[in-house]
Amino acid sequence: MSVPETPATVRHIHPDLETVLYTEDEIKARVRQIARQIKAVYGNGEFTIVSLINGAVMFTADLMREIDNPVRLDCIRVTSYGAKTKSVGTPQIVADLTLDIHNRDVLIIDDILDTGKTLSLVATLARRLNPASLRSCVLLDKKARREVPFQADFVGFDIPDKFVVGYGLDFAERYRNLPCIGVLKPSLYTTPAH
Questions:
Q1: 166 touches 26 (CB < 8 A)
Q2: Could you tell me the pTM of the whole model?
């Protein structure tokens, strides 16, 4: 785990962050390590990436650039947070797969695994399409929030039960563009959107 940034550095990155958990450089280094782990599993074989958007867009793009395998990419959109800081209710599929994954090796990529509901739903739907293999990769694992048993095959970082933003993760569709992953100031959770 990285040493938290000083308050002056955090303000320089973004004034809404309480602290930075992972810097841009730490994320890049970890993405390269995960790519090597994935390569060790798939060898030189082709596989299909199913990215959960919007959150996993940046992670998926950076990870794909580190993998030289032939890969197919599809995206699925699932909603579970809305403008809240905790997953609410049952996740809903908003946009489904377009590629045929029957008898294909499939890797589901998501930004964060917390309750387990979203990844469990997507994995269940994917299994019904009879892939040759099905694995999952998450940038962040927040085990303290798990409600549904689910373990990702590849994990970037284990994080505490804090609300994080940046590098694709958002609060009410904001902060996705930050290059780091930081803890959002709790005082902002109840601030009305402008």
A1: no
A2: 0.86
